[in-house]
Amino acid sequence: MEKEKALEIWDSIFGAKKWATDCFGTWMYRDDYGETDKKRNNRPDGTGKYYSYGWEIDHIKPKSKFGEESDADLMNNFEPLHWENNRSKADGFPTFMIDNNRYKVVKCEICSMHNLEGYGIVNSEGKRIDWKGVTSRYYPKN
Q1: Contact yes or no for 1/57 (Cβ under 8 A)
Q2: Cβ pair 131, 111 in contact under 8 A
Q3: b/e code 13-26 from CB counts within 10 Å (16+ = b)
Q4: Is the pLDDT of residue 109 over 60?
Q5: Cis (ω within 30 of 0) for the bond into 62?
Q6: By the number of CB atoms within 10 A of the CB, which of 75, 96, 118, 130 ranks highest?
């Protein structure tokens, strides 16, 4: 995804924040979109950990699982993830593991109530952890 579009998604979810955590709790830095090698040590929680805070846009339901590729590009299927979590998740569907924890991709009820396609992520207790589930927001039809 082009950086400009990824930053629009970041801004619509996190607002003007430069730092945020993905749905798995991993810190990301807004300006490090697509960066996998760049490291920083100025994390906002004060740990000073020297780390890569780059991130990517994940297709919650993997593009490879859609019948038509264009369906995968629905905004309600996007989730900003730290790049390592995105790579670990890969095409895991409907279940996948991050840091020895099991997660599942589910159809987004918030989107369905508005006749939209969209997907979310639940943890092993069934709690929604993706941005739509946490904020009760979604992208309406254009």
Answers
A1: yes
A2: no
A3: bbeeeeebebbbeb
A4: yes
A5: no
A6: 130
Which helix H or strand E contains 20, and what residues bound it? strand 19-21
* Mean of per-residue pLDDT scores for the chain: 90
The first and second tokens of residue 27, run together, are 């810190």
Could you tell me if residue 30 is left (phi over 0), alpha (psi between -120 and 50 degrees) or otherwise beta?
A: alpha
Say if residues 66 and 72 touch (Cβ distance below 8 Å).
yes
Distances (CA, A) of 77 to 35, 38, 59: 22, 27, 6
What is the rounded distance in angstroms from the CA atom of residue 82 to the CA atom of residue 93? 18
Question: pTM of the predicted model, to two decimals?
Answer: 0.90
Using the predicted structure, report yes or no on whether residue 71 has a pLDDT greater than 60. no
| Per-residue exposure over 116-127, b if at least 16 CB sit within 10 Å of its own CB, e if not | bbbbbbbeeeee
SS3 category, 123? coil
Farthest CA pair distance, the chain: 45
CB 61 within 8 A of CB 89: no
| pLDDT at site 72 | 47
